[in-house]
Amino acid sequence: MNKVLKELIVAQFREYWRAPEVLFWTLGFPIMIAGVLGLLYSFKPTVNYKVAFIVEAESAPAGTEGMFEKPLSLPGRGIRNVSFEKMTREKAEEAFRSGKVEIILRVRADSSASSSIEYLFDPVSERAESIYLWVDHLVHEKAPNVKSTVVTMDQRGSRYIDRLIPGLIALGIMNSTLWGIGWTLIEFRIKKFLRRMIVTPMRKFDFMLSISTVRMSLSMIETGILFLFARYVFDVRFQGKFYLFAMIFLAGHVAFSGLSILLASRTNNTRVGNGLINIVTMPMFLLSGVFFSYHSFPDWMVAIIQFLPLTVLVDSLRDIFLYNADFLAVIFPVTYLFTFGLVLYLLGLKMYRWY
Length: 355
Known about the structure:
Elements: H1 3-17, H2 20-42, E1 46-56, E2 72-74, E3 79-86, H3 89-97, E4 103-109, E5 115-121, H4 126-142, E6 148-152, H5 160-190, H6 193-198, H7 204-234, H8 242-263, H9 270-287, H10 299-305, H11 309-323, H12 327-351
Parallel strand pairs: 1-3, 1-4, 5-6
Antiparallel strand pairs: 2-3, 4-5
Helix pairs in contact: 2-9, 5-7, 5-8, 5-9, 5-11, 8-11, 8-12, 11-12
């Protein structure tokens, strides 16, 4: 190894050593994530699955009386409970579309004046299928002659893809804003661009607003392309009012713009910025119900998850897409996201380092 190359390598290592925060985000952060997830999955998790229970017969099949009045335990790793909640057909279908229940179990009267059991679920969901198989197994243990049938919930609005597209739109808003604004501001500080801008005759608010406006415009294009793809490939339909969608879309951008400005307010290293953005986005990516329902988590976790900004945005977009939600249904999430973003924006601007 020649002397020049050796000195360059030593200089690079010294750069790391002189920046403890970089050492943490490059070495400590992955170890921390591995430790947390390892400990989490080392314990036996308690997962609660919910089933909508509809009774359309005078009595349950012989041998299954009272079976659906208490939770059932599924076999396998951890504690997995299946609880049954009596609902009307309309409420059960609404709960299924929103992801609050995995399957619908309906007790019906058949032609022989007895009753049979009907299971309604999306065949794409492996979790729903496993619940059906185990519940039906328990039913036939107690009532071997009971008649059971499966009805696939694959009509428009009840499919997995219908719930996924609003979630992906919300996820795109979060990623586009945090990386597009936060990462841009960090790079501006590293390149000394902010120092030059602060001496020009401009308002700081206008500078931040210009970056947010450009990012929101690009996000609108990304959302339009995603929806057109889903519309013509999977026949996903938009059921709601466009002005309500625009309100929640704007509120989501305000919320994550405020968060991105706060994250970028003091950071002057891309490695640290990368770690900060990841540590904020990763929990919401996993927990906020973009890809699977968060209602299966324990109740104490659901109480926290439902107030994460991405969760509020996902739930609101789904209400508009799938249920044609009215103004009163979206006023709280819009107010919550605007307030969340404004508070973090003011905090970030107060802490902001322009040089």
